[in-house]
Specification:
Blueprint (H helix, E strand, L loop, with lengths): L1 H11 L6 E2 L18 H15 L3 H17 L1 H7 L4 H20 L4 H18 L3 H17 L5 E2 L5 H20 L14
Parallel strand pairs: 1-2
C-alpha cells in the first residue's frame, strides 16, 4: 500500500519500503466484447459477480480498478444509460454491498486499522493542543512502519477512503505540531510597555 508509505514518509520523514504486487489476473466474470442487447448491464452484472466473489480489500481494489477503467472508457454511454434502468441502479447497489462485505469479511486490514488508530490518536493530540503527544504518535508511526515495511503490498494509487484518511491524519498532525510552536502568553500582572 503505497499510500501508507507516503503518509509515513511524508508525515515523519521516514523512508518507505514497498513491494511490487504481482500482476493482476484477468477477472473471471468480466465479459469480453458483448454482443448482448445491453452491454452496460452485462458488464455491471459481471463486475457485480467479481466483487461478490471477493474475500478481502485487495481483491475489491483490483476489481474496482478494472471497473474504473471500463467506466472511464464508456462514460458517455453509461451516463446516457444511468437513471433509465432500475436494474442498473440495483446492480450498482449490489456492487457496493459486495465490496463493503468483502472489505470487512476477512477481518480488519491490519494496515488500515493501524492508520485509523494513528489518525485517532493524532487528532486527540491536536484537540488537546499537545505537541509532545504528537511527537509520541509520530515516533510510534515511524516504529510501526519500520517493523511492518515488508507486510504490505503496493496495490497502486490510494482509494478515496485511503486518501481521506491520509488527509485527516496530515491535518491533525499539522494542528498538533503547530500547538508546540505557539508563542507563550506574556506574564500576567506585569508592567505593560
Amino acid at each position: 500500500m503505497r499510500w501508507i508509505a507516503l503518509v509515513v514518509a511524508g508525515g515523519i520523514g521516514c523512508g518507505s519500503a514497498t513491494t511490487t504486487a504481482p500482476a493482476a489476473q484477468p477477472l473471471a466474470n468480466t465479459p469480453a466484447a458483448s454482443t448482448a442487447a445491453d452491454p452496460i448491464i452485462d458488464h455491471l452484472r459481471a463486475y457485480r459477480d467479481d466483487l461478490c466473489e471477493c474475500k478481502d480489500r485487495r481483491c475489491t481494489r483490483v476489481v474496482g480498478k478494472t471497473i474504473d477503467t471500463w467506466r472511464s472508457k464508456h462514460a458517455d454511454d453509461i451516463d446516457k444509460h444511468r437513471g433509465t434502468s432500475a436494474e442498473q441502479q440495483e446492480l450498482e447497489h449490489q456492487m457496493t454491498t459486495c465490496k463493503s462485505n468483502a472489505n470487512t469479511a476477512a477481518g480488519a486490514d491490519p494496515v488500515w486499522t493501524a492508520m485509523q488508530r494513528f489518525k485517532t490518536e493524532m487528532c486527540g493530540c491536536a484537540d488537546a493542543k499537545d505537541a509532545d503527544c504528537a511527537k509520541r504518535v509520530t515516533d510510534e508511526m515511524s516504529t510501526w512502519a519500520s517493523e511492518n515495511a515488508g507486510n504490505w503490498e503496493d496495490t497502486g494509487p490510494p482509494t478515496a477512503d485511503e486518501t481521506q484518511l491520509a488527509q485527516q491524519l496530515a491535518e491533525c498532525t499539522t494542528k498538533a505540531m503547530m500547538a508546540g510552536m505557539q508563542q507563550p502568553s506574556p506574564p500576567s500582572g506585569g508592567a505593560q510597555p
